[in-house]
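Can you make up a protein sequence with its backbone structure tokens?

===
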Amino acid sequence: MPSGSIPLALQSLFYKLQHSDTSVSTKELTKSFGWDTYDSFLQHDVQELNRVLCEKLEDKMKGTVVEGTIQQLFEGHHMNYIECINVDYKSTRKESFYDLQLDVKGCQSVYDSFDKYVEVEHLEHDNKYHAEKYGLQVKSESKGL
């Protein structure tokens, strides 16, 4: 298997996982990410792994009939808005994402986590918002939907 080919390393790993009765090494997959032995012992979170994996797969797919597939499969959009309470100022912007960082602490289900994700955040104290001509606003609300 060519070293450095994430798609081939993934394909091989999943084949081995499906057809092996024993544990399977992830060494080839680790090498395909360009990580050396030292990197393999560093903690990598799942969001970082997903980002690197998607970037590498998108690069491999450029110029092929499947170009753009990763984006079509995984990209989502939400509107982030800020509304000031003391002045007449609102701001909205569309943001794209490949993953969401959901808080699970204190949540009984993924639905509770989503409810918490879209709760209004009050921007005050050290978390003020600069509202263009109105300057820093002590009380503002932010929400992404």
Q: What stands out?
A: Strands lie at 76-84, 90-97, 121-123, 129-130, 136-137, 140-144. The two ends are 44 Å apart (CA to CA). The longest strand covers residues 76-84. The mean pLDDT is 84.
